[in-house]
Prior knowledge:
alpha+beta, DNA polymerase, domain 1
Amino acid sequence: MNDITFELNHEQVTITADPSLRLLDVLRDRLHLTGAKEGCGEGECGACSVLINDQLANSCLVPLANVHKQRVTTIEGIATTKEGKLLQQAYSKEGAVQCGICTPGMMMASYALLKKHPHPTREQIQIGLSGNLCRCTGYNMIFRAIERAAKEGEGTW
């Protein structure tokens, strides 16, 4: 057991735990942040996506020790921001949400993409979401949601 200290959604946290635990499990089971989902458990679906130092990461592949003294942002951390609300509205207006398993990860990938490319091309969107899988909605509605968020959020990103 070690003390692991990191910034989580703009608040300092210290967890005493086995440093080899997956970040996903700590977020869900210890910190009760359930937005990141267990999908494949192999880093292929993106349902567990978070930002670590503003870089998109699959929390199912990240040992807790790797976030010591780092900055972690979850869907709960962006949900109440101006950008997060803009993405939620765009996803809703474009019908880009169905079962909800992939949605938090898709939104995290969308957020990271728009921070990097405030006016993304369709190709940049496809590349930005390439680590996230959706089995219900179909990608075109998600692509349109990102395009809408970029347009309606002019100057926000």
